[in-house]
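Q: How would the structure tokens look for this protein?
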Amino acid sequence: GEIKQTIGVLRRGWRLIGISTLICLMVAIIYLARTKRIYQAEVRLLILQQGGRPLKVANTDPNGLMEGNEDYIPTHMLIVSSPQVVKWAIDKVGLDNLPSLLAAKKRDLDPVKEAIDHLKVIRPDRLARVVRVEYRAGERHEVVRTIEAITNSYKQFIEEAFQKNSSKAIAIISKARDDSSRELGELEAKYLELRRKNPALITGEQRHSFLADRLANWDKAANEAMVKAVQLKAQLELGRQLTREGTELWAVAHAIHQLGGDTNTLMAGLTSGASQSGSADLIRQLTQEQQQLAERFGPQYSKVRELQAQIDRIRGRVRGARSRLEGDEVRDLVRAIEQSLESVQAMRNELGKQFGQDQEKAKQFEADLLAEEYLRNKLERQRTLFNTVSDQLKQAQFIGAYSSITSQVIAPAKALRSPIYPRVGLTLALALVIGCTVGTGAAVVLDRLDQRVHSIDELRQLTGLVVLGQVALLPKRQSGAIGPMGLISYAKPNSYWAEAYRAIRINLDFLHRRDPRLQVLLVTSPYPGDGKTTAASNLAISFALAGRRVLLIDADLRSPSLDEVHGLRREPGLAHLLKDRLPLHQAVQRSRIENLEVITVGLEVRNPDELLSSPRLKELLDEACRAYDVIVLDSSPLLAAIDPAIVGAVVDGVVLVARPGMLRRRDVELVLELLRIGRASLLGMLVNGVSREDRSYSYDYLGYGRLVERHSGDVTRSIGAEDQSPEIVTQAIVTQENGQPGPRPV
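A: Here is the predicted structure in token form.
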């Protein structure tokens, strides 16, 4: 399903993909036309050692890297691309004979560096003593001339410099190595001495000493003491202020408690004393009695006011006695806070002293730590320098050991026939791939943004309905060669369009066999122009040609058209039957088709929904069921009016005409919900406007239909379809094994 959906997206977006591909190809062609060609020449050199140390290649050296003790090929590769060799080559050829390098010099660039950037020395095989030298430039003769000069300069360098005695260079490098070794030893001794004097130094990822943790602890303790001192000061000031104001003990204790003070002992004293306890009990009793009387007689009752005065007198006596007892306790509480504050201040002073001492130690420790880091970094740099000098000494000794090395050209300088840059084939292929990719991506994005339903499979998934038949797009070249679309099943009975409606009729017959009550069919669609009237007319004709007595009713009271399709009078019609309650036979008109009778719409009404909601419609349909085998109703579009939902409640089944490419996803659920509201029985869909890509199984039958049409010799006529585009025709669903049209079970 996903593959088929993807193919559908690509088919719908083929124009976008083609345009994107053409644009990318045009850009690639312009790029190829404007890009400067780069040519390449190459030469192969065989480098062998003669004299000096003998070749030592044994079975224990499978890679062939040991000759003497080291491989000398990488050294020669560096020599070939060295500035000295390249400069000699440029001087030999002459800068005027090298257009690319001459242009670089005019741009204030170094010709030697530019030549090295375009020079490449590689070793094709690690087992061979062969190197390949490649050079690239803008002209063919320039690359050949330059690479030949570089090869000759390399040979000259080998003869003049590389094969000379290198003992002087070795001695200089050896002295530098010894000096570096001595300095390295001195630095190591200093570093070890520093570590010995400061064993507590911690090196590593964190680089923190234990003093840092200790300082953090001192700082934490000092902060806690400071917070405690601030708290005690606030309590002391509050206690003094409340004492001067003569506040009761319990209020002082409560206020201090709000600032974090401990007043449990004092609060216990407040609750002691038999007299105070008795007074409190008496006050509670009087208060309860006062509340009861106030609830019964109101707060202005005389007894209530007498009790309130008595309660106030008792509270005054208790308050006076308590104030005398609490004075001393309040002063004791304030003195206790003062003592606590003094002890906390002393502790803060001691903590500050200890913090200062440890801070000095920490500063000294940090200085030692920085000195250790500086010395260690210097030691590492000295070690790196020593290793570098040692490597240079080894290289010098290696060069001296191979004092006799010859090189021979085994593949002369030759320029490639075509430029190496730009690559025409690769560029065009890449442009083609990018164009297709961008176009495909754009097509997928646009398809995702498009809210329309494009395929039958997608329509099935959204609706959950079976497809009773398909309606194909009519090619424009045939749009004027078909009869009226509403009568296609009668006018061209041997065409594949008529065969499609016969297949749909057979599918409905299968449903009728399962449910014999299926007699009254409603044909509707979401939008105007979906082809519902054409479908209703051709289905009715197909049933009539099969020998059924069929009644076709135009229930589209808003935009009727069946009278024009069949060439009948519009009045009397369905509106007269519903409004004037005429007998059924007075509105029935015979059509040109045997067994098919039609009820047109009748007069124009202002309230079609109310008229269709009347019980008269159900009575008419019941009466018609006794006289006809099949009743087909054409109605208004679902999203244009509520009429189809009303009619759907009184019919036996609904055939939904849907058109991919026009139906939007958000409208699918709305259509189904409208039909569910009326409890309509959905039989399936007649898919209209199906493209050739969606007709995966009907291409052969389409060809058969053409043969039948040509053989029949019917005369074609111009189209006058009502609510369907002249480019839409019906298409048969299946074929039988013997090639004849036949039904496909639902």
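The chain has a mean pLDDT of 77.

The domain at 36-163+403-415 is CATH 3.30.1890 (Bacterial polysaccharide co-polymerase-like).

Upvote if useful.
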